[in-house]
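Design request, tokens follow.
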């Protein structure tokens, strides 16, 4: 931890506003959990040397971090009297506007290939989509959803900060890079330690929660970006938006919009095969195909991130979301929750990556 302390002075013309506060920001995250054995570390480093070279931070990335830090300092220090309040609100508006413009420029450079969403880009990385912060409806309302279940209630409106969630589940091809580089045990549904032929772009299956966490830690190691599993709140918001959609596309069931038992596929389908089932933010397969692990323990609602349910050291059951090709429509609802012990792996279990801003 390091301190950005005391007073942050912001000047506009001849007026000065001194923001009286002391903020703490976390230093770089440690990678103790990701580097379990020296052998694995050595293999990863050797593989990285063959795959890519380090690139310096992009100027837009540095600008985004600077603006975000200024906004955090401002929000942490509300004005003490009305005159300061006028300037405080004006400055906050200006910084937010500048943040949006810089973010747009950054995302444009991503699209043009000039940079990746978070700095360095690799072909085995998932495509990430920004989910804006704010409140959203989480859980089920039995007055609206006839399939609502008790463990999806009560409905609440948690607030989330901005974050990125992968557009699709992790594919066999993406997971294969992890298996090859880190020497991780491949899923038992693979053939000779390789993804089934023709299914490279299908979601990886047969991964336990521990496997999913190990994959995210590895991806963080090789990219320098804080990849992790999403909380179940982050997963649900990305799937349904802010207004509490029952399914990613709306409130009415449609078997043609996702890969569930009703569709009769009897197996996984390539990621993104159902564009008509896209979520409000542009994420694919948030209903059906494979269940996706989250970081959250299977605790009662309402959801609170600070009540212990995000304890990474616990061996209790973890939440999975989204339904699968083997399950019926009711489990494809955005509020549906399922849990398994973290060591469990199945032919219908996969994962999707998240990144905090």
């Amino acid at each position: 931890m390091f301190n950005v302390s005391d007073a942050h002075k912001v000047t506009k013309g001849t007026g000065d506003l001194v923001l009286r506060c002391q903020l703490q920001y976390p230093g770089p995250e440690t990678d103790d959990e990701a580097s379990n054995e020296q052998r694995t570390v050595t293999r990863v480093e050797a593989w990285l040397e063959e795959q890519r070279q380090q690139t310096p931070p992009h100027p837009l990335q540095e600008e985004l971090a600077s603006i975000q830090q200024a906004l955090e300092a401002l929000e942490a220090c509300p004005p003490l009297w009305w005159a300061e309040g006028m300037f405080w609100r004006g400055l906050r508006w200006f910084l937010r506007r500048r943040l949006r413009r810089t973010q747009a420029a950054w995302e444009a450079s991503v699209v043009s290939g000039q940079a990746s969403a978070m700095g360095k880009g690799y072909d085995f990385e998932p495509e990430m989509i920004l989910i804006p912060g704010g409140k959203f409806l989480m859980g089920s309302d039995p007055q609206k959803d006839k399939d609502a279940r008790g463990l999806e209630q009560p409905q609440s409106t948690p607030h989330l900060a901005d974050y990125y969630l992968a557009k699709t589940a992790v594919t066999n091809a993406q997971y294969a890079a992890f298996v090859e580089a880190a020497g991780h045990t491949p899923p038992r549904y693979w053939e000779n330690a390789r993804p089934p032929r023709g299914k490279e772009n299908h979601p990886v299956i047969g991964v336990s929660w521990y496997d999913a966490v190990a994959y995210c830690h590895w991806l963080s190691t090789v990219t320098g970006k804080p990849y992790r599993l999403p909380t179940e709140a982050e997963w649900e918001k990305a799937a349904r938006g802010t207004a509490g959609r029952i399914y990613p596309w709306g409130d009415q069931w449609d078997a043609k919009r996702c890969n569930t038992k009703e569709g009769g596929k009897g197996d996984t389908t390539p990621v993104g095969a159902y564009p008509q089932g896209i979520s409000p933010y542009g994420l694919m397969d948030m209903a059906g195909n494979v269940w996706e692990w989250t970081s959250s323990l299977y605790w009662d609602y309402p959801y609170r991130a600070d009540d212990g349910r995000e304890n990474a050291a616990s061996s209790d059951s973890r939440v999975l979301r989204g339904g699968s090709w083997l399950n019926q429509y009711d489990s494809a609802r955005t509020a549906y929750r399922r849990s398994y012990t973290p060591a469990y792996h199945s032919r219908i279990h996969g994962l999707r990556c998240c990144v905090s801003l």
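Comment from the thread starter after seeing the answer: thanks! Residues 82-111 form the longest helix (30 residues).
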